[in-house]
Design brief:
CATH architecture of one domain: 3-Layer(aba) Sandwich
CATH topology of one domain: Rossmann fold
Distance between the termini: 47 Å
CATH superfamily of one domain: P-loop containing nucleotide triphosphate hydrolases
Order of helices and strands: EEEHEEHHHEHEHEEHHHHHH
Largest sheet: 6 strands, mixed
Strand order of the largest sheet: 5-6-7-3-8-9
Number of strands: 9
Shape: globular
Helix content: 40-55%
Oligomer: single chain
Strand content: 15-25%
Structural class: alpha/beta
CATH class of one domain: Alpha Beta
Number of helices: 12
Radius of gyration: 25 Å
Length: 345
């Protein structure tokens, strides 16, 4: 298992008044295995982007105290990357595709100790992302699908590749052929690198849907299904959601979940059933998860030992000064002076 998340609750708004708070994600649990491609599927406003950012570490402030995210215990230097759906808009329009990748490779590997052949690094990415035909084309003349593939390739020019690649809606705004090319490139990444991909997507067609190793279907902040795409139809049948032989199960489910899930007993049943299955699924890994949490705390202490030592020494010195001040005849005046000095600094 590469990453596991348990009881994710995410709230936005002021913490001073409950009326101004809004819960975006409700008790979401799931996991991703190494070298797999995984989909976050749901309508607009279901919480896909927020969950991606929470798992990638971009949004930590609004998480509840019970929210837990743990990583593989065998990976010490865990790296993740988040690619926004608007990232292609930030590309330099007057550079060629090759130049954009070369400059990115030089910047991302500027602190790398080993000598890197930037052109060879770029050529491999150009081949993997099917950019050979536009290698010397100006970025401003590229199509939407080509820009999407270029944006992802730029993030992977670093010598040390991320273990988790989170991509927000890589197929939005693309035709079916361009979307299929993007997904094929992502699928090949999981095969050629020690990497897992988690991508959000609105409404995939059947070909793209079947490419996912696992899917997480969201509806208004709740997870209503977690598992393999092939298991979705039977899971829907258990909640009295049926679809014809010529209908795609995910399309039917998204139509049903687009309604108010507080009034639809079928969606409520799917939410409860998924929560129950996730609880049983992760109970077997409880000891491993507690180990990972303890390991993460230990690593944080190791990394921050200088700060912790400085704070400890400061508090000991402060307590010593206060003790001597109390033993002094003019202890009240001395203590007031010390407190004032402490507040000023």
């Amino acid at each position: 298992m590469l990453i596991t998340w348990l009881n994710i609750d995410y709230t936005v708004g002021s913490s001073l008044t409950k009326s101004s708070q809004k819960t975006i994600l409700h008790n979401i649990s799931g996991c991703i295995e190494l070298k797999t491609i995984n989909g976050l599927i749901g309508a607009s406003g279901s919480g896909k982007t927020n969950l991606l950012k929470c798992l990638n570490g971009f949004q930590q402030k609004g998480l509840s105290s019970r929210s837990t995210i743990v990583y593989n215990k065998n990976i010490v230097d865990f790296k993740s990357c988040f690619i926004s759906q608007f990232q292609s808009n930030c590309l330099h329009q007057l550079l060629t595709v090759n130049q954009s990748l070369i400059y990115s490779s030089k910047l991302k590997n500027s602190c790398h100790s080993q000598q890197i052949d930037h052109q060879n690094n770029v050529d491999l990415l150009i081949e993997q992302f099917l950019l050979n035909d536009i290698k010397n084309s100006i970025v401003g003349t590229c199509s939407g699908g080509e820009l999407k593939r270029l944006s992802i390739a730029i993030e992977l020019t670093a010598h040390s590749k991320p273990y988790l690649l989170c991509i927000d809606e890589p197929t939005t705004g693309l035709d079916s052929n361009a979307a299929q090319l993007v997904m094929n490139c992502l699928y090949n990444l999981t095969l050629n690198h020690n990497m897992s991909i988690l991508t959000s997507i609105h409404q995939p067609n059947t070909d793209i849907f079947d490419m996912f190793d696992s899917i997480h279907v969201l509806s208004k902040g709740f997870v209503i299904f977690t598992g393999k795409p092939q298991e979705l139809k039977d899971f829907m049948s258990e909640s009295n959601i049926t679809c014809d032989t010529n209908e795609s199960p995910i399309e039917v489910l998204l139509k049903v979940s687009a309604n108010d899930n507080n009034n639809d007993s079928r969606i409520k049943h799917m939410i409860d059933k998924t929560s129950e299955l996730n609880t049983h699924r992760f109970m077997a890994e409880t000891n491993n998860i507690y180990y990972l949490i303890a390991r993460r705390i230990r690593i944080q202490y190791i990394i921050q030992w200088k700060t912790l030592l400085a704070e400890t020494v400061f508090h000991i010195m402060f307590a010593t000064i206060v003790m001597f001040a109390i033993n002094d005849d003019n202890w009240l005046k001395s203590l007031t002076t010390i407190i004032a000095t402490y507040i000023i600094h």
